[in-house]
Amino acid sequence: MSDVEHRAGFVSLVGRPNAGKSTLTNALVGQKVAITSAKPQTTRHTIRGIVNREDSQIVLVDTPGLHRPRTLLGQRLNDLVADTLAEVDAVGFCLPANEKIGPGDRFIAEQLARLNRKPLIAVVTKTDLVDRRALTEQLLAVAKLGTDVAGPAGWADIVPVSAADGFQVDTVAEVFSRHMPESPVLYPGGELTDEPEAVMVAELVREAALEGVRDELPHSLAVVVEEMIPREGRSEDNPMLDVHVNLYVERPSQKAIIIGKQGARLREVGTNARRGIEALLGTRIYLDLHVKVAKDWQRDPKQLVKLGF
Ligand SMILES: Nc1nc2c(ncn2[C@@H]2O[C@H](COP(=O)(O)OP(=O)(O)OP(=O)(O)O)[C@@H](O)[C@H]2O)c(=O)[nH]1
User: Fold this and answer.
1) What pLDDT is recorded for position 305?
2) Spacing, Cα 45 to ligand 1 middle (Å)
3) Coil, helix or strand at residue 83
4) Model ipTM value
5) How far away, in angstroms, is 82 Cα from ligand 1 center?
6) Pocket of ligand 1, candidates 14, 16, 21, 23: which has the most ligand atoms within 8 Å of its Cβ, to mutate?
């Protein structure tokens, strides 16, 4: 792994009520608790926090659907779980050290096991509430649950942790990091703000567009979100947002840099930005990027107004 420069991705902590998900989120994130602005009705994920490490960034998201499993049945539930977890890179399944594994845990484990090839990390929480012997027994029981539902390979990892006294919190972050794909930072600056969503969307596109060409395009790039509109004719549980974004540069040569050979670079910019935007907004998006030359926009007051400065 030594040749990998940076990893980043999305993790969802799941588990039955009271398993310690929120407390662990806060312990992982530290003081930097994310504040997201009002979500569209289509919310699939809400970002709960961002863990910034030297060589990785883990974005913790909520996954609805597993909280009240008993109210949903069969295929509908499978679809929902598969759907809501489709975009995360790993799942942290929280099981308290001080409670016997119950039918609720087993049920969630079975649903998770259906997610093909998604790394499933069992997190045994609240270890401060039990002694060594009880913890060992619980770890064995959790391992057995893993092989019961997922076959011989079982969980991708099992990590004991106590959010209350800090035991192994860093190890949990380390294990999640290991399962993240190679990727540049998804949320530059590492924090979400309560700025309007359009501003954050523009910032994500801007960062993606500057990736690797920062020196060539120092301050010559402005990004404006023209519109974000729900795609018509989509069912309520499978919405999509059309996001139209203009990128303004000063010179045609800069436009060429952004677009790349036969548009290859712009496509990559779009793919990278889309991931972050989808997690931010909690819905699938179609991202439409246009690169335009706005000559000397930085010096022209009329242009600046148009660009929202
Ligand atoms: N002793 C101890 N208590 C913990 C720890 N983590 C969580 N708790 C307690 O366990 C209870 C449930 O924790 P939460 O983090 O709210 O659990 P949750 O999984 O987010 O719960 P829901 O929001 O209901 O799904 C709270 O009273 C926490 O204070 C821990 O590491 N040690």
Assistant:
1) 55
2) 21
3) helix
4) 0.97
5) 25
6) 23
Burial-class residue 68 by CB neighbours within 10 Å (0-12, 13-18, 19+). Answer: exposed
Ligand 1 contact via 98 beta carbon (within 6 Å): no
Question: Using H for helix, E for strand and C for coil, what is the string for 41-60?
Answer: CCCCCCEEEEEEECCEEEEE
Nearest ligand 1 atom to the CA of 25 is 15
| pTM to 2 decimal places | 0.67
Residue of 44 and 46 predicted with greater confidence: 46
Q: Where in the chain is the domain with CATH 3.30.300.20?
A: 197-306
Residue with tokens 């000559």: 295
pLDDT at 72: 46
Residue 162 CA to residue 236 CA, distance in Å, equals 39
Mean pLDDT, residues 113-121 taken together = 86
Sign of CA pseudo-dihedral 52, 201, 61, 146: negative
Among 23-27, 131-135, 212-216, 239-243, the least confident range: 212-216
* Domain 197-306 classification at class level: alpha beta
Answer whether 164 contacts ligand 1 (Cβ < 6 A). Answer: yes
Residues 204, 189 contacting (CB under 8 angstroms): no
Give the least confident one: 8-22, 72-86, 172-186, 232-246: 72-86
Q: Say which CATH topology domain 7-178 has.
A: Rossmann fold (3.40.50)
**Residue showing tokens 């009520």:** 17
Which ranges of the chain does DSSP label H, i.e. alpha helix? 21-29, 74-85, 103-113, 132-150, 169-178, 197-210, 252-259, 264-281, 301-306
Find the 131 Cα to ligand 1 centroid distance in Å. Answer: 18
Residue 252 Cα to ligand 1 midpoint, Å, equals: 55
Q: For residue 196, is pLDDT > 70?
A: no
Residues of the chain with CATH 3.40.50.300: 7-178
